[in-house]
């Protein structure tokens, strides 16, 4: 005859307690491992201390800037940007880059995309974009402002670049950070009001992340 052993409630309670202890040990082990990995990444980050990229305007040319109505503008701006990664051991991924031109706070071209790219440490890249606006809405004072700039023979154009970047250290890639670049081009505005106008002074841009 087989014997039937019935476990007491006390035995079951002890077994349940052991399972809880095992789960706690597993949780603490995983937490310790995760904390170690995060601390290592933070340590690498602090040691390398990545510096934000540097942008400058190499050339800007306005080929068209004509009002087709009281508040509608046709514009064409060709520009060349220099992007430099000053870091010695940190690469940069650029993505979702958009660029447009503005004049006295008014956007005069729609956003134009710049293809994503990867920048090696201490690498410099040449970025070109053609900004074309058709029937772009502007303020009624636009024509007056341009005429006044013609009399002073100086036109100030702002180039704005937005997008996202990621730092790359070895095989580790950071999360995405918002990138904002503002460049100011001061262009000689001669006695003839029609474009083209150009600037080749290599203006340094401000960059925020």
UniProtKB/TrEMBL annotation:
Its main location: membrane. Residues 81-183 form the Late embryogenesis abundant protein LEA-2 subgroup domain. The keyword Transmembrane helix applies. PANTHER family: NDR1_HIN1-LIKE PROTEIN 26, OS05G0367900 PROTEIN. Keywords: Membrane, Transmembrane, Transmembrane helix. One of its GO terms (cellular component) is membrane. InterPro entries: LEA_2, NDR1-like. Pfam families: LEA_2. This is Late. It is a single-pass membrane protein. The chain crosses the membrane at residues 26-48. It is found in: Membrane. The keyword Membrane applies.
